[in-house]
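The freezer alarm interrupted the setup, so I double-checked each line after restarting. Inputs confirmed:
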Amino acid sequence: MELKTLAILIPLLPLAGSALVGAIGLRGLKDRSHWLVLAGVTAALFCAVSLFYQVNTELNRGGSETAAAIGAHAQIDPSQQVGYGKLAESFTIYEWIPAGAADWLNVTFRVDPLTIVMLLTVLSVSTMVVMYSVGYMRDHHGHAELGYERFFAFLGLFVFSMCMLVLAGNFLLLYLGWELVGLCSYLLIGFYYQKPSAAAAAKKAFLVNRIGDFGFGLGILLIYLTFNTLDYQEVFNMVANSKMAGDLALSTERITTIALLLFCGAMGKSAQLPLHVWLPDAMEGPTPVSALIHAATMVTAGVYMVARCSVIFAASPIAMWIVGAIGAATALFAATIALTQFDMKRILAYSTLSQLGYMFLGLGVGAFDSAMFHLYTHAFFKACLFLGAGSVMHAMAGEIDIRRFSGLRKAMPITYFTFLISGLALAGVPLLSAFWSKDEIIHAALASSTPWLGWIGLVTAFLTAFYTFRMIFMAFHNEERLPRGVEHAHESGVWMSAPLVLLAIGAVFAGYVGVTTGHGGFLGMFEPHGAFHHFLAPNFSDAKGHEMTVAAAQGVAHGAGEHGSESHWLMWLSSGLAFYGIFNAWYFYTRRPGIPLAIALASGSVYKLFYHKYYVDELYDLVFVRPLRRLGDMCYACDRFVINGILWIIAAIPRAIGFLLRGWQQGAMQGYALGMVVGLVVIMWWVLANA
Amino acid sequence: MPNPTALMIVGALLFAIGVVGFLTRRNMIVMFLSTEVMFQGVLMNLVGMGLLHGNIQGQGLGIFVLVIAAVEAGLGLAIVVMLYRRRGTLDAENWRSLRG
Amino acid sequence: MTWLTDNFLGQHLLSMLIIVPILGAIVIYARSSWDAVFVRRFAMGVSLVTLIITVLALMAYLHQSDAIQNGGYTLLEQANWIGSADASIHIQYKLAVDGISMPLILLAAGLTPLAIWGSFTSIQTRQREYYALMLLLHGAMLGVFAARDLLLFYVFFEFTLIPLYFLIGIWGGPQRQKAANMFFIYTLAGSLLTFAGVLYLGWKASWIAPTAGAASNLAAGALTFDLDVLYNLAPHLCSGEQIGLFIAFFAGFAIKVPLFPFHTWLPLAHVEAPTAGSVILAAVLLKLGTYGFLRLSLPMLPQASIELAPYVATLAVIGIIYGALAAWIQTDVKKLVAYSSVSHLGFCLLGMFCLKAAGLTGSLLYMINHGLSTGALFLIVGMIYERYHTRELAEIGGLAKKMPILAFFLIFFTMSSIGLPGLNGFVSEFLVLLGTFTSDDPKPDGAGPLGVWYAVFAASGILLGAIYMLHMARGVLFGPLKEPGHGADTSAGLTQDLTRREVGILVPLALACVAIGVYPKMLTNMMQPALDHAVLAKVLPHDWSGDRNVDATTIQNQTNQNPTSRKRQRPVDGERTVQTRKQATATQTTLNHIVGAR
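Predicted 3D structure, all chains:
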């Protein structure tokens, strides 16, 4: 099929599935509702794979043509490739919103390597999660839960929205996808709407995202004001040439403002530091939702967006610095909180925050492709971890506190092994997927002008290994203990196990598309920067060419070749840290379980600070929610007393006049008549006197 | 051919009698009659003016007003009857509900 | 299309639009022997017939490609009402539609049948009078939007008060009389000032008409209220006169809109009004105010509009935030939705006074969208009220469990109301913000009077909007089930969840929301040329009037070309072109070509 048709089909297939389920699910399909959505998402995945081959062919063909034109061995700027140039042009589906005379904001799609990477990640994880949900959303007797069809309809809608987000060819359509995934997140977090905590979490997620979107929306408006267009390629071209609409020079302040406003949106959606509060609460949703939306796909939309706008961000050193700093801060901050939590899903949520922080750290130092690589590997192992947690939760009848159970590894072998493998990946153990991607980010950070970001990354890597294995040891090792009311733990059915296994395979091998072999690097075999980076290269070449990121870019792009063995000490160091973290966790939680308690007691207030998540929620409540609420009270009071009081005063004027005049009305008919006669006489006298 | 001045004098006199009657009597029927007298005074004036200006419209309007006055008299007397039924008296002093 | 317009009825589509509902009202009121069920069905039938006539009018309008592409009006009906062209007074019965009024007529004609349908179970007393008043209101609303004579406009504008006064005062809640009185007196007080302005304009026209009314066939010195004449008065009004007139119009329209701080009648009226009354009030009657600004204040008083725009916009922005905050703390769901209207209409005015094509289109679209989504929200609140006889957030909760269909619709319209992309609210909200944000930017259609900061503050209204709407959705739908002791009242033939009738009411609204959100082009294509022609060109007629300052034949030729090819090039100096307006307006008069059906 043609590229355009495929691109249109990809979002529409899940939407069709979702709409059908929504329409006839309650009456006709009931607990067979998953088939339509599963079919839609799987078909979309096949379309995406086919799209990948087409784009790849186009890139290679274009590349070779260009190379042939310039001369076989000439250095080619990847963005100048014929094939990429064609792909970077977005194609219009239809005219959407009129922005003034003859100027339309259109529904346009753009299919380039970045889109493909996102599509493949999103759709493959989605397929796994939809499969998993079939098993998860049932009780032990195989009966569907209440709201089964609603769940799948929302899931389909989410896949549609996410595909729209990544396929968008302009900022407005990006915003559409952006908000729609927010809606789906809202609906799915609030899936168990009768639980007050779930309803509150859903609302919180939507509102915190809206705070970010407030900035994001203003950023889009500012882009339109500056460039007079919202099309990606037109904007990027102008930024690359430091031009505004009408050939005016683009000031650094302007581009910094744009970048920071856009980043506000990313902070909301990807739960970065000041706006991270919604993500841990979002774990109130069903676990497959946490896996899909709040770990693998939606929360990475912010990373995708910054990567997509790499040209804009790269043009502003300040913005880059802020992105990197916030990413590093979030990574460290969330990891410290994860150390103290006991809710399995919350630990994973904080871990997601932390990993997203890594991605932003990578973006901030200009390693856009490494950030995308980490996004891609993270999707697999984190989804697998969440689904594993869901499997545990399913077996423990909804209990998820790791203090309440332990030693599950015998009863749930598949869950245990998949969880362990993904945990190892998360911890950054060598040869697993996240090792490659995380290491690349840290490497790029160390090589950049802000090496301290890299050191924060290394510290966080140690913490990551520790909290991951704290969780694994507490839940799966030691003697078997089950929460009250659960007679025996049991392994989940095949609908749930199969996706776990597939994702675990992904967690192991997904990293290998991003490395090259046979150059004698790490372990004598592996070098960073493989096919993945090559595929994405045209997307980021403009940004990399920019002088600000030149140092970082060189560090990354040529790391393998030029730095040689010098760069491998980092790989050894980080794998050492990972093992050291795992060892510590093992020692603390299986050998000497008294130590953590002792540390917690000894560190008192610090532990409390971590445990209460730095009191950010309370701070927000105090600083924003309550004052706004008071302001609302004041507005309403103003309505009732001030404005209505003034109205009463105005209305009182005629009333007062009437009060003064009513004395004249004695009510007797003849009195009035006398008045009239007197008046008549006066008028006649006046007329006659003047005649 | 009557003298327009005479007509107007009669009209003025009738009007004055009506006014005095209306102001001094308290019986509602008498007050109503006084208004009718005033009315006729105005009518005489109208006819007189018509004569003065030498056109027929004064008299035409006069007849028109007479018809209206007849209708209105019926209505007015009906109201008086209703009022009498309510209070059992025709003293205008009893109807002071417009007092402020 | 000749089958439609070549007969007597086809030439009087707009008159029929007004007469049919009013006749229906008279018939219903006169037939005291009809039983309630038949009265309802008859009223519904009349409103549907009106809708069909509206659709016919739309078809006839769309057939006038010239009107569509150049923004002129069509389906003209003209007759002398008071006086004649040779007398000293010339008030006409003049009806026509253009791209500004057509969408609003569609909105009014589309919503009234739904509002009537929605009253079937909720109104149980004095049904004959109720439906007669609804139809009377319907006719009056359509008349406002169709009128092309200022006095006729004013008559219809004021006439809408009377049926609604009774609707609130008779079928309303416990405080209905206070609410009805406040609504009536407040809006009347404002519009009396407007009437003074109307008279002044007519009087002014009577002695300027000979020079200004090039397009009209007026005798010298006739007192006239023909909008086509009044539009050309602007150059003859000094700035003091313009500001005075603007304030006079503002008094009536700002109270009607309602703009902060003139909004306090609205929550009271909404809370007390019966459901259908609230729907019509929010969806259509408030739009009379915004329509008045768009149709009268802006094009007739351009200089004052530009000068006072920052003040009006400031009030609008305050209203956006103030209304949202006040909505948030309400415990009565209906009051919450009422305050949200204050916030939303702030957007509407903001978009209007930014004087950019995008903002104006957004503003007009906002009127439609607010009508759809807020109308639907009021309907849903009414449906809850019919079942539980309460609207207090403290007394109901977790209804999603028992009423999943209602929950779906409530979430849907909540999302539409808070501007979720893909639904209607977003398109208009974005356009308003875009217009405001780029207002002082001379590209692409001239600098307007507002600036970036208005948009920044207004955008916070989107955030606050999400806060209060989700607060409501959560309170009503989510959490543990909570209902008043007596449970759902199903005595009037209702079921626990929505009945088919109620679903039938909400589905057309939902479809319209999706359609406008996904493909707004069908409406904006109608609106934009009309807004350009009837508003923008009259307020900021800068150099691009040169592009349009061509005789009719050239325009005819241009319309044959692709209209989008007329992309206007403007200098970037950004200089306010108010100074050049006088001469530009003079040239405008020559091309005030009237695209009539006849």
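Quick read of the result. The first strand of chain A starts at residue 91 and ends at 98.
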